[in-house]
Write a structure and sequence with these properties.
Elements: H1 2-43, H2 49-69, H3 82-90, H4 97-145
Length: about 150
């Protein structure tokens, strides 16, 4: 049970790291898409409704990706405090190693539940960023195709 609780917290941290990497890629792709297609559109000298909609999709993709990437202090619970471990279990000579492992497993379970809710919000932000990127590409292509 203890090993599983440690593995679950570690998997959440790895999931967050991968999500940050993917959000950074979406942000870069949105910026590159707007600069490449936007430059072609501006060669004609005018912005159409489709152009403005594509710019709006870019802003939405960038904002959602930045929401995912924004650093958050004291937001996650990925580790146990050594001070707590020492103060609660090591200083108490009556505490067995099995009791300590059970308590840490319970703490890790609480941390997983705490992190799961926050990860769900970030995954939703990533989905919004990805959808907005797809919409941005589609709108730029439609704009270029109607000129």
């Amino acid at each position: 049970m203890f090993d599983e609780s440690v593995r679950a917290v570690r998997q959440q941290q790895e999931s967050l790291d991968r999500l940050h990497g993917r959000a950074g890629i979406v942000l870069s792709a949105a910026a590159i898409t707007s600069s490449l297609f936007g430059a072609q559109v501006l060669q004609d000298g005018s912005l159409t409704c489709l152009s403005w909609a594509a710019i709006g999709a870019f802003v939405a993709a960038a904002a959602a990706a930045l929401y995912v990437l924004w650093p958050r202090r004291d937001y996650w619970r990925f580790s146990n405090s050594p001070k707590t471990l020492l103060g609660v279990w090591v200083d108490d000579e009556d505490t067995s190693i099995d009791t300590m492992r059970r308590d840490v497993a319970m703490f890790n379970q609480g941390a997983c539940e705490h992190n799961r809710e926050k990860l769900t919000h970030l995954f939703t932000g990533f989905q919004v960023a990805s959808a907005a990127l797809g919409l941005e590409v589609l709108l730029w292509l439609l704009d270029l195709g109607t000129r």
